[in-house]
Structure formats: C-alpha cells, structure tokens
Design a protein that fits this description.
5 helices, 57% helix, four-stranded antiparallel β-sheet
Length: 113
Amino acid sequence: MSTLSARLIAAAEAAPTTTDSQGRVLSLRRLTALDKLRLFKAAGPALAQNHLWLGMATLACSVTAIDDVPVPPPVNEAQIEALVGRLGDEGINAIARALTPPEPLDVATHAGN
C-alpha cells in the first residue's frame, strides 16, 4: 500500500512535459471539468463565450510549472492574460502540440488495402 505522498510524487513525475522553442520546460496537465468551470468564472461572462480567447486561455491554464517553478492557476482575467503573455507564442504553440491527441491510425491504409 502506497502513502498519499508517494502517490502524489508519482503523479507529478508522470505529468506530461514539453519544451518550447526557447528551451523552457513546461509541465502540463489536462484540465478537469472543475478546472474548466473555474476558468469560465475567471474569464467572466463575455470572455467565456469568446471561443478563440478561451482556447488560448485553456492552453495557458494547463501549465503547472515552467522550468520546475510552480505556476498557480490564474483566478481572474488579468492573471490569465499575464500567463499567456509569459508563455508567448512559443509556449502556447508547444502546449498545443503536446496536448493535441495523435491522429487515429487508418489501419486499412497502412495494411495496403
């Protein structure tokens, strides 16, 4: 039987990471339903309906650490925008690549059918 701290350490070690073009190591996690609900609240009613803004905010809010320095979840619009600004295009692009599921394998094509 493992202890709570051992499970937490194992989960942290299993967290996906990506490296952006600036060489920063970004630790990531997929947002849960509760995380998304909190993001909507932080964004406010107008921005929560802006799909482009919300998509970029979701990527930024998936970051848990930059170069092993913890990043707390933002709780308002200004903090979300500050995090997006800190990550820049390089960070946001790396996060998007890391969290995009791979294309499904078309077995028929690869089988020569």
